[in-house]
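Q: How would the structure tokens look for this protein?
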Amino acid sequence: MKFVVATLSIFLVVGLKSSGFAQARDPIPDSLIVYPTKYVFTVGLLQGGSAIGVDAELRLFDGVGFQIGTGLVGVSTGVNFHFDTDINSSYVTLMYVHQGFGNLFVQSMIGPAYVHRWKNGLSGQFGVGFLSGYSRKWGDVFKNHVPPTVQPMIAFGYCFKN
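A: Here is the predicted structure in token form.
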């Protein structure tokens, strides 16, 4: 019995010593460390609350980003919840879109959207916007002088990552 205990003790000590040596000898190379994406720019059609615009997303922490966009005559902002820890992935967003300024103001919408980011950099957004405000000129376009209260929010673009 003493022989078995002594043998197991020797194996335990040798195993602990060699595992510590192996860990100290094999650090992770810098080329294998992946740092999270800090920001992403998306340029395209119907981005930033306008016909042509740009959205910039900043990583707040793992899987959550803040987005702000601008276009020819509009702005947008949103909070993005990614399906991965990196903001370089597809996500669900709650966004506010303000289309137009001053005499060019058309409408404001708030709503959820799903944004899919493909590996090749293309981006597509598909969502629903709920009307939160509109101009009198935009209301006159419709028969009952009120624009639809629920509208699609669609955008297509290309992502530039850091």
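The chain has a mean pLDDT of 86.

The helical segments are 2-25, 136-140.

Upvote if useful.
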